Amino acid sequence: MTRNMRLRGRIEAVAAGLCGLLFLVTLIWPDWIEEVFGVDPDQHSGALEWAIVALALCATLTFSLLARGEYRRTRTLSTE
What we know:
Helix content: over 70%
Order of helices and strands: HHH
Largest sheet: none
């Protein structure tokens, strides 16, 4: 049972890291979508970039809290 929890915690930690990276990249380089994919879905308004920043920040916080809870749960089970 602890092995599954460790795997779940690792997956959540990796997801938090990836979302955090997406957050930082979009915050620092907002036009990456236009340059990488060659499309301009928001016609230079920046709305899509701000939506990505907001969603990535929320996902980073959520996955970080989930991974933290999983770490604490695993740590508690291993001491019993």
